Amino acid sequence: MNNSSRFYCNKECEYFPCHEGIEEDSFNCLFCYCPLYFLGDKCGGDFTFKNGIKSCVNCTRPHIPENFEKIKDILRAHLSIQ
What we know:
- The protein is largely without helices or strands.
- It has one helix at 68-79, and strands at residues 48-50, 53-55.
- The chain has a two-stranded antiparallel sheet.
- Strand 1 (48-50) and strand 2 form a beta hairpin.
- 10% of the residues are buried.
- The mean pLDDT is 90.
């Protein structure tokens, strides 16, 4: 997949890949920090809470290219963006 406005892969990042389970060529770094984090337990991802702190270490949702539109739709709904 080529870098674009919907997909960006930074294989030179010192943390790449930051999650396991996605092929390196399909790993989307566009949402390096998940834009759904602020939704807490309503983000829909695979997270845990430890001592009251949300951990997304097991979540690959924002790094799967096909989820770009889904994430955008969720953001629109929660932020009232048209």
